[in-house]
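Q: Predict the assembly, please.
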Amino acid sequence: QITLKESGPTLVKPTETLTLTCTFSGFSLTTSEVGVGWIRQPPGRAPEWLALIFWDDDKRYSPSLRSRLTITKDTSKNQVALTMTNMDPVDTATYYCAHSVGISVVRGTYYFDYWGQGTLVTVSS
Amino acid sequence: SYVLTQPPSVSVAPGQTARITCGGNNIGGKSVHWFQQKPGQAPVLVVFNDSDRPSRIPERFSGSNAGNTATLTISRVEAGDEADYYCQVWDGGSDHRVFGGGTKLTVL
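A: Predicted assembly structure:
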C-alpha cells in the first residue's frame, strides 16, 4: 500500500525559504521506473506541477519556477524534500507530493498515481 | 507554453453519461491523464495514458484522445461522482507537466 505525507511549516514570511518534506511508504526510490513529484494548488484553482525526482536522481523542474526550486531525496529515510526560495503571498497553496510511475528512460511518460493529503502553506507577514 | 482548455462546468442527471473535454493543440499526440478531486481532498487518478484505468477505479470511467480534444466519459453517473476533474499532459517542448483549468461536474 503506497502512502505519502507532506510536512513542513504552515506559515512563512515573504522572502523566506520554504522547505517541505514528503515521507512515503509502500515503495522505494531505489526501484527503477519510480519517481516522486511535488504539485501545488492555490485555493480555488487548478493544480500546478513543480518538480519531479526519479529513482536515478534525475531531476526535473517547472520551467517558470526552476530558479527557485530544489528537489532532493534521502532513500535511507524514504523522504523527498522540496525547497522554494523567495516566497511570496502568491505562493500560498496546498502543496502535494505524489508517487510517479512510467517507462524507465522516457521521462515524459511518468504520471502521478498516488498523492499525499497535502499541506496548506500560507505566505504572509 | 502548452495550454489545456476545459469547460468550467458540466451538469448531468443521475444515470446519464457525462463527457468532460480537454482541448489542446494536437493533444491527440500526447498522453492524457485525468484526476478527480472532491472538496477538501487530494486529486485521485481516474484515467492515465488516454484510456487506461487504475484497478481501483470503476469501469464507468473511460477516456479517449484524438485530434485536438481528449474526453473523459463517466457512464451511469452517480451522486458520488460530483467533483472537479482535471486533465494533465507532458509537454515535451518545455519538459513541463501541464494541468487543465478543471471542470466542475454537477449531478443534478
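Chain A touches chain B at residues 37, 46-49, 52, 60, 62-64, 96, 107-118 (CB under 8 Å). Chain A has a mean pLDDT of 96.
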